[in-house]
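URGENT: need a sanity check before tomorrow's submission.

F., can you look over the Ribosomal protein S18 acetylase RimI-like enzyme record below? I want to be sure the sequence and structure line up before it goes out.
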Amino acid sequence: MTAMTSTLAPIAERAAPPATLTPPTAGGLTWRAATREDAPTWLALRNLIARADAEPYVETLEEIEEIFEGAWRDMAADSLLGFALSTGSGADGELVAWAQVERPPGDVTEVRAFCWGGVHPDRRGEGIGRELLAWETGRARQMLAASGKDVPARIGVFAEDDGPASKHRLYERAGFGVRRYYSDLARPLTGPDATPVPDVALSGSLRLVPWSKDLDEATRLAHNDAFRDHWGSQPQTREQWAQRAGFAPEWSFLVVDEAPDVDALLASPDTDPDTAAALRAGEPLVAGYELAARYTEDFAVRGYSFGYTDILGARRAYRGRKVALAALAAGMRAFAADGMERAALDVDTANPSGAHGLYASLGYVKTSGSRMFSIEL
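Structure tokens as predicted:
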């Protein structure tokens, strides 16, 4: 435990969890937890809100159904749907509000709980959103306290930079402050503004290969290593890693070291225990990766087709050897070969790896932005 965390009070005290949670009373809605059967109706409300707020994306049924797959989630306790009063048929009325809270299971050096929710545009101004956020925050405090992890803690919410100012004010009045900014970037793959995708030569025993299922666990280990020094990032468990709605394996590429210096890596204090165990077992070593996603439903929202680089990274021991650039370039070529008009990705504006400069040099420009508000505990 670091000096910083050793001075912290136990998480059960810092989180100050409420003994009970009270569903909102504003708006005269009836409330219950979300179930898998709600997925189509829930999706419809979420996308209606996204359109009303001019968000640069929509969601898919696959993404909503995936929420019910994670064993670390308890949707009976961590979700809430608000329905207008029914007409007496015994069925739920119209879904007009929703909330969900999640605590990622792999958190180690800090423990986090994230809140999501929304209210139908026609029902805003009734106080529903304020009370719903209070419920979410209370549930997040309960989840953090129950984690038993006596490390720094965070309750986070996200908002588009150009989203409703009322949403930003809602978060601020509830005690959340802006902590981080993110940029969505895109670059043309066709037309007069498209610059050539660079040819990247890899040195030594490094080889570019397509993503394959048998290398996916090695890729997870590479990702956890690559993002250890990124703000707000924590290791992903195997179950978290498996949740990848929209994943496009045909657009995803890895850089593998076919002859790693195992002794040097094992001797390095930067080599994490999971990687060390994999090296001792003779498992393959992924040095860098580009995992892409296909979000076809977003083409109409953005006004162009695109391939999306969902995550990109290089192991810390391999930085400076162009492994991430090689994987990214391979992904862009795959996008273009499938007729995509642009390549897109998002980046933390304070990314420590110099990613912004890399993307700018490749012709990526900002198309939209978002921010994270948080309560730090």
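My own read: The CA atoms of residues 75 and 360 lie 41 Å apart. The chain has a mean pLDDT of 90. If you see anything odd, call me.
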